[in-house]
Amino acid sequence: xxxxxxxxxxxxxxxxxxxxxxxxxxxxxxxxxxxxxxxxxxxxxxxxxxxxxxxxxxxxxxxxxxxxxxxxxxxxxxxxxxxxxxxxxxxxxxxxxxxxxxxxxxxxxxxxxxxxxxxxxxxxxxxxxxxxxxxxxxxxxxxxxxxxxxxxxxxxxxxxxxxxxxxxxxxxxxxxxxxxxxxxxxxxxxxxxxxxxxxxxxxxxxxxxxxxxxxxxxxxxxxxxxxxxxxxxxxxxxxxxxxxxxxxxxxxxxxxxxxxxxxxxxxxxxxxxxxxxxxxxxxxxxxxxxxxxxxxxxxxxxxxxxxxxxxxxxxxxxxxxxxxxxxxxxxxxxxxxxxxxxxxxxxxxxxxxxxxxxxxxxxxxxxxxxxxxxx
Amino acid sequence: xxxxxxxxxxxxxxxxxxxxxxxxxxxxxxxxxxxxxxxxxxxxxxxxxxxxxxxxxx
Lengths: 375, 58
Known about the structure:
- The structure holds 2 protein chains of 2 kinds.
- Chain A is mostly helical.
- Chain A contains 13 helices and 7 strands.
- In chain A, α8 runs antiparallel to α9 (about 270-290) and α8 (about 240-270) packs antiparallel against α10 (about 300-305).
- Chain B contains 2 helices and 3 strands, in the order βββαα.
- Residues about 1-10 and about 45-58 of chain B have low confidence and may be disordered.
- At the A-B interface, β1, β2, β3, α2 and β4 of A face β1, β2, β3, α1 and α2 of B.
């Protein structure tokens, strides 16, 4: 198959072996069975592979994909594109669509560098799914949250509760300072329960907005840093910006309520319960701040990304950094961005990469200290 | 003509003028909860205040 892969004349005809007097049969371009063209996050055109991979399309690319009904070849498409290197641009798009698994035909192989970057993008988290598409609370209809009215009531009741929790937490931290005693072991159990509630909050909001949850579990981000996760890939179908912000902030909102309750115990319970709650509160606040840190791909980052109407910000930012460091070409979608935006992305990627590197060094150093102390 | 279902331009004839033609694979979207600081601090035997104080104590 040629690089473009389509618009090729089928075997016998290409060899001149077709029936004399009949024009050669030309195969047109067609999306794979089960591939979908939709309008999704931030009203952007997306194409979804039968395996559930999402690919964002630039407007011109969306018009091309919408026309892939099996009647057009790459040459036909290129003839409708004005400007330099029309055929090469169309071929590049078709290759990308094949790699994304949405277009019939074989994708051209990636070179070693491209393969490495693709693997890093796809396998950033080593996952251990604990729940996957099984019947259970995460797949149940959202019940009382299903209607917009009830969600509004919940938001109105939730805001004062969150404000009150924030006040309790600040009061406890100012009044009690940092704890001097070590955390008793049940604290870790409480944190585990809180973590489960955090992820369930994301899942419940997803379900309320009609987003399917693929799986949930624990994993190692960058194969080193422990995280819990909920796979909400299908939230790309959700167009509402507010909905995306709500999904991202559901977890931290739940964490803040936990912090508020713990602060109340630390302030008013007295005795060992108060000192344990005090130790727990610090850990909960650390968890909350970590999850809101926009330099990590956690909830704060996703909320910021959704609120500013951007998609795939982190990958774009790291694409700019990779282009600079590894001398790989910029993707068309990033190249089309204004220079100032690309500079901002580069700045974000550099700071985020530096922060992550420090984090990895810190975790590595901590592990050596803990292991050294244990031996 | 705008396709009612997709809101996409579904003209039978495509004419694009100097527009960028590209696509971008979107990664699997996951809501992550980063636990490393909290559990790192919780497992620290000497202090719960911070990883730094834990390390200095050990």
